[in-house]
Design goal:
This protein has 442 residues and is α/β, with parallel strands linked by helices. It folds into three domains: 124 residues, no CATH class; 156 residues, Nucleotidyltransferase, domain 5, CATH 3.30.420; 95 residues, no CATH class. A hairpin with a 7-residue loop joins strand 2 and strand 3. Strands 1, 2, 3, 4, 5 and 6 form a six-stranded mixed sheet that branches. The protein has 15 helices and six strands. One of its GO terms (biological process) is DNA transposition. GO terms for molecular function: DNA binding; transposase activity. Pfam families: DDE_Tnp_1, DUF772.
Length: 442
């Protein structure tokens, strides 16, 4: 059933105080709550629900919890726990009275993300853009000039090595066999961890020959378990065979891959992870997915964020990034600034200026071209202050959703900072005006 709306209470509760009487309404979160169009989510997300069944959770609560989660870089469990302790967060999510119980189970946020998908989550990013313009933290004319760049959104996986992957695959198959009653000739429960321990010690001592030898033994042990299961699976029921299908396919892919193969398997629980070389000295490779970020050139507002599975060439992703900016802001950018990685792009209807460009550069464009580097610290803030540094959401769709929500969290931090600084500036001037103003005539 469609999400429920809070009842409109005509009278106050005599035994409880309203939240607006408990908090400081001049607080930046209270001001931000008035700037966001919460009814917009009812219109956008209502189509994902049917007319029958139990009413869903209010959309303002879901949107507010996602905003708070990515603004302060928290997990689903942490944001729900802190919501029950913070009256400002409850007021931001539309509560009238202070609540002492948890608003929902943290797993409800996961089910909402799965139901809405990345297209539904774009509504959260679009609402932050409108709120930034309404708060005057960003001017509407800033949307005409954008900066686009790419980064890597790392996945929540351990550093992949062959030995760890072989042992983890064996453990998964043995666990499945034990759960479904498939007898194994040998499970290698003691042999596998012992070989992995030796492999790690040999690698630390830089004894590469012994390390490769133990890795080969781990691969041999995994192959024996796979062949043993293949011999006994035909005698099992169809449901048991279906339970083994995904794990067996991933294990065979792991056994068949070679050193120089493309699309290698780096994590069994996240087979979509890619290895992306960044060319930096401190971190040569990052394991995750490439993400495109678009910001306004002048005010650094995030107006586009999307994942790019397959690690495509940057120049081939520019058209898609500009289409998303147009979809979220409602207008096509006039100028776009990129780095040298976007050479060979296929965008014709927007003026694209690359770094170090000299031809056709006016004084205004030269000034905006210098501002292109400002997107780098914005990406750094999205990783350090937000959740872009490591994605815990599952699958390719989880990568896209996390990138979009990280952009929304960065916009809210920008708006909150503006509201906080703006009030600190006008408060002393307002008090001074009250003290120096002449008294009114009676």
């Amino acid at each position: 059933m469609k999400p429920q709306t809070p009842p409109d209470l005509p009278t106050d509760d005599l035994f409880r105080h309203r939240l607006e009487n408990l908090i400081d309404t001049r607080h930046e979160l209270a001001k931000l709550a008035a700037l966001i169009d919460w009814e917009f989510f009812d219109a956008q997300w209502g189509e994902a629900f049917c007319e029958n069944g139990r009413p869903a959770i209010a959309t303002r609560l879901i949107a507010g919890l996602h905003y708070l989660k990515h603004t302060y870089g928290l997990s689903d469990e942490q944001v729900v726990q802190r919501w029950a302790e913070n009256p400002y967060w409850q007021y931001f999510c539309g509560e009238r009275y202070f609540q002492h119980e948890l608003p929902l189970n943290p797993s409800s946020l996961t089910r909402w993300r799965q139901r809405l998908g990345d297209e539904g989550m774009e509504s959260l990013l679009s609402a932050t853009i409108d709120a930034a313009i309404a708060s005057k933290a960003v001017k509407a004319r800033d949307l005409k000039c954008v900066t686009v760049d790419t980064t890597v959104q790392e996945k929540a996986i351990a550093f992949p090595t062959d030995s760890k992957l072989y042992n983890r695959a064996r453990e998964r198959l043995v666990r499945l066999a034990k759960a479904h009653g498939v007898p194994l000739r040998q499970s290698y429960v003691r042999v596998g961890p012992r070989l992995l321990f030796k492999n790690n010690r040999y690698g630390y001592a830089r004894q590469t020959r012994r390390m490769r030898r133990t890795a080969a033994k781990l691969k041999t042990v995994l192959g024996r378990v796979v062949r043993d299961i293949e011999r006994k699976l035909p005698k099992q029921s169809a449901s048991v065979q279906a339970a083994f299908a995904e794990s067996m396919a991933l294990t065979k892919r792991l056994l068949d891959q070679q050193r120089h193969d493309k699309n290698k398997l780096y994590a069994l629980h996240a087979p979509e992870v890619e290895c992306i070389a960044k060319g930096t000295a401190h971190k040569r490779y990052e394991f995750g997915v490439k993400v495109s970020i678009a910001t306004t050139n002048r005010s650094n507002l995030v107006v586009g964020a999307q994942s790019l599975p397959g690690s495509p060439y940057d120049g081939h992703t520019l058209k898609k990034a500009l289409h998303q900016v147009e979809r979220l802001t409602g207008q096509r950018p006039e100028r776009c600034y990129v780095d040298l990685g976007y050479r060979g792009h296929d965008v014709d209807d927007v003026d694209v200026f690359k770094a170090r460009q000299k031809r056709g550069v006016t004084r205004t464009i030269r000034r905006e071209l210098k501002r292109r580097n400002a997107i780098e610290p914005i990406i750094g803030h999205m990783k350090n202050d937000g959740l872009l540094h490591r994605n815990y959401l599952k699958g390719v769709e989880g990568d896209a959703i996390n990138a979009i929500l990280c952009g929304a969290g960065q916009n809210l931090r920008l708006i909150l900072r503006y509201l906080r600084i703006f009030w600190l500036k006008i408060q002393p001037a307002f008090i001074q005006y009250l003290l120096l103003a002449p008294p009114r005539a009676a």
